Description:
The chain is an all-alpha fold.
Amino acid sequence: xxxxxxIAIAAAVAAPFSPAAMPVAALGAxxxxxxxxxEEGVLHRRVRHRTHTHYLAVWLLVALFGFLVxxxxxxxxxxxxxxxxHWFADALTIQGVPLGWWSDRRVHLFxxxxxxxxxxxxxxxxxxxxxxxxxxxQSGPHGFLPFFYNWGEFYGRGLIDGLEWxxxxxxxx
Length: 173
Ligand SMILES: [Zn+2]
Protein backbone atom coordinates (compact mmCIF):
# COMPACT_ATOMS: atom_id res chain seq x y z
CA UNK A 1 0.00 0.00 0.00
CA UNK A 2 0.96 3.60 -0.37
CA UNK A 3 2.39 5.55 2.56
CA UNK A 4 -0.53 7.93 2.72
CA UNK A 5 -2.83 4.94 3.36
CA UNK A 6 -0.47 3.41 5.92
CA ILE A 7 -0.22 6.70 7.81
CA ALA A 8 -3.97 7.29 7.69
CA ILE A 9 -4.78 3.79 8.99
CA ALA A 10 -2.22 3.92 11.82
CA ALA A 11 -3.34 7.39 12.88
CA ALA A 12 -6.94 6.17 12.84
CA VAL A 13 -6.04 3.26 15.13
CA ALA A 14 -4.13 5.48 17.57
CA ALA A 15 -6.54 8.43 17.64
CA PRO A 16 -9.27 6.98 19.88
CA PHE A 17 -6.76 5.60 22.38
CA SER A 18 -3.99 8.14 22.44
CA PRO A 19 -4.02 11.18 20.13
CA ALA A 20 -0.49 12.04 21.25
CA ALA A 21 0.71 8.69 19.90
CA MET A 22 -0.48 9.38 16.36
CA PRO A 23 2.86 10.68 15.00
CA VAL A 24 4.76 7.72 16.47
CA ALA A 25 2.18 5.28 15.13
CA ALA A 26 2.49 6.90 11.70
CA LEU A 27 6.27 6.60 11.85
CA GLY A 28 5.91 2.93 12.77
CA ALA A 29 3.34 2.46 10.03
CA UNK A 30 5.88 3.40 7.38
CA UNK A 31 8.84 1.70 9.11
CA UNK A 32 8.60 -1.66 7.29
CA UNK A 33 9.20 0.23 4.03
CA UNK A 34 11.74 2.86 5.09
CA UNK A 35 13.73 0.31 7.06
CA UNK A 36 14.37 -1.42 3.73
CA UNK A 37 15.99 1.78 2.43
CA UNK A 38 17.96 2.27 5.64
CA GLU A 39 19.26 -1.26 5.40
CA GLU A 40 20.23 -0.82 1.76
CA GLY A 41 21.82 2.56 2.45
CA VAL A 42 23.75 1.58 5.55
CA LEU A 43 24.60 -2.06 4.91
CA HIS A 44 24.86 -1.74 1.12
CA ARG A 45 22.92 -4.83 0.44
CA ARG A 46 19.85 -5.46 -1.63
CA VAL A 47 16.73 -6.05 0.43
CA ARG A 48 13.92 -7.93 -1.21
CA HIS A 49 10.72 -5.94 -0.77
CA ARG A 50 8.34 -7.22 1.90
CA THR A 51 10.66 -9.69 3.54
CA HIS A 52 12.21 -9.36 6.99
CA THR A 53 11.02 -5.80 7.67
CA HIS A 54 7.48 -7.06 7.07
CA TYR A 55 7.32 -9.89 9.62
CA LEU A 56 4.15 -9.59 11.70
CA ALA A 57 5.74 -11.63 14.50
CA VAL A 58 8.58 -9.13 14.92
CA TRP A 59 6.31 -6.09 15.11
CA LEU A 60 3.93 -7.82 17.51
CA LEU A 61 6.89 -8.50 19.78
CA VAL A 62 7.95 -4.85 19.57
CA ALA A 63 4.44 -3.72 20.52
CA LEU A 64 4.15 -6.25 23.34
CA PHE A 65 7.55 -5.26 24.67
CA GLY A 66 6.38 -1.67 24.80
CA PHE A 67 3.07 -2.49 26.47
CA LEU A 68 4.30 -5.09 28.96
CA VAL A 69 8.03 -4.77 29.57
CA UNK A 70 9.39 -1.29 29.12
CA UNK A 71 8.46 1.79 27.19
CA UNK A 72 9.28 5.46 26.84
CA UNK A 73 6.11 7.58 26.70
CA UNK A 74 4.36 4.76 24.86
CA UNK A 75 6.56 5.31 21.82
CA UNK A 76 7.82 1.73 21.49
CA UNK A 77 4.34 0.23 21.87
CA UNK A 78 2.75 2.60 19.37
CA UNK A 79 5.63 2.30 16.92
CA UNK A 80 5.03 -1.48 17.00
CA UNK A 81 1.26 -1.10 16.70
CA UNK A 82 1.75 1.23 13.73
CA UNK A 83 3.99 -1.32 12.02
CA UNK A 84 1.38 -4.03 12.67
CA UNK A 85 -1.25 -1.92 10.91
CA HIS A 86 1.20 -1.73 7.98
CA TRP A 87 1.30 -5.51 7.91
CA PHE A 88 -2.48 -5.88 7.94
CA ALA A 89 -2.87 -3.29 5.18
CA ASP A 90 -0.22 -4.98 3.03
CA ALA A 91 -1.85 -8.36 3.70
CA LEU A 92 -4.92 -7.12 1.82
CA THR A 93 -2.87 -6.67 -1.33
CA ILE A 94 -2.04 -9.13 -4.08
CA GLN A 95 1.64 -9.39 -3.07
CA GLY A 96 0.78 -10.43 0.52
CA VAL A 97 3.18 -10.39 3.49
CA PRO A 98 5.10 -13.03 5.49
CA LEU A 99 4.11 -13.93 9.06
CA GLY A 100 7.63 -14.40 10.37
CA TRP A 101 11.18 -15.55 9.86
CA TRP A 102 10.20 -19.24 9.77
CA SER A 103 8.43 -19.08 6.41
CA ASP A 104 8.62 -17.26 3.09
CA ARG A 105 4.99 -17.96 2.44
CA ARG A 106 2.99 -14.77 1.89
CA VAL A 107 -0.21 -14.31 3.83
CA HIS A 108 -3.29 -12.75 2.22
CA LEU A 109 -6.27 -11.45 4.14
CA PHE A 110 -9.74 -11.40 2.60
CA UNK A 111 -8.40 -12.90 -0.59
CA UNK A 112 -5.68 -10.27 -0.94
CA UNK A 113 -7.15 -8.67 -4.00
CA UNK A 114 -6.35 -5.01 -3.36
CA UNK A 115 -4.01 -3.46 -5.87
CA UNK A 116 -1.53 -0.96 -4.38
CA UNK A 117 -2.55 2.58 -5.27
CA UNK A 118 -6.01 1.49 -6.41
CA UNK A 119 -9.35 2.99 -5.45
CA UNK A 120 -10.04 0.09 -3.07
CA UNK A 121 -6.92 0.95 -1.07
CA UNK A 122 -8.10 4.49 -0.48
CA UNK A 123 -11.61 3.33 0.39
CA UNK A 124 -10.15 1.07 3.09
CA UNK A 125 -8.06 3.93 4.49
CA UNK A 126 -11.04 6.28 4.37
CA UNK A 127 -13.25 3.77 6.21
CA UNK A 128 -10.64 3.43 8.98
CA UNK A 129 -10.37 7.20 9.34
CA UNK A 130 -14.16 7.57 9.37
CA UNK A 131 -14.57 4.99 12.13
CA UNK A 132 -11.86 6.69 14.19
CA UNK A 133 -13.42 10.11 13.64
CA UNK A 134 -16.79 8.74 14.73
CA UNK A 135 -15.33 7.18 17.88
CA UNK A 136 -13.40 10.33 18.81
CA UNK A 137 -16.42 12.51 18.09
CA GLN A 138 -18.71 10.22 20.12
CA SER A 139 -16.41 10.48 23.09
CA GLY A 140 -16.54 14.28 23.00
CA PRO A 141 -13.82 16.64 24.21
CA HIS A 142 -13.90 15.29 27.78
CA GLY A 143 -16.35 12.56 27.19
CA PHE A 144 -16.44 8.95 28.03
CA LEU A 145 -15.60 6.18 25.61
CA PRO A 146 -17.88 3.24 26.29
CA PHE A 147 -15.28 0.69 25.29
CA PHE A 148 -12.16 2.42 26.44
CA TYR A 149 -11.78 3.29 30.09
CA ASN A 150 -9.21 5.98 30.40
CA TRP A 151 -7.66 4.74 33.64
CA GLY A 152 -4.69 7.08 33.38
CA GLU A 153 -6.98 10.06 33.34
CA PHE A 154 -9.06 8.74 36.23
CA TYR A 155 -5.86 8.48 38.21
CA GLY A 156 -4.86 12.00 37.25
CA ARG A 157 -8.21 13.30 38.46
CA GLY A 158 -7.87 11.47 41.74
CA LEU A 159 -10.85 9.23 41.09
CA ILE A 160 -8.86 6.05 41.64
CA ASP A 161 -5.73 5.36 43.61
CA GLY A 162 -2.36 4.24 42.30
CA LEU A 163 -2.90 0.56 42.89
CA GLU A 164 -6.12 0.57 40.93
CA TRP A 165 -4.43 2.41 38.11
CA UNK A 166 -1.56 -0.05 38.04
CA UNK A 167 -3.86 -3.04 37.87
CA UNK A 168 -6.10 -1.55 35.19
CA UNK A 169 -3.78 0.40 32.96
CA UNK A 170 -3.57 -2.37 30.38
CA UNK A 171 -7.31 -2.97 30.37
CA UNK A 172 -8.13 -1.20 27.19
CA UNK A 173 -11.42 -2.96 26.75
ZN1 LIG B 1 5.04 -2.47 2.93
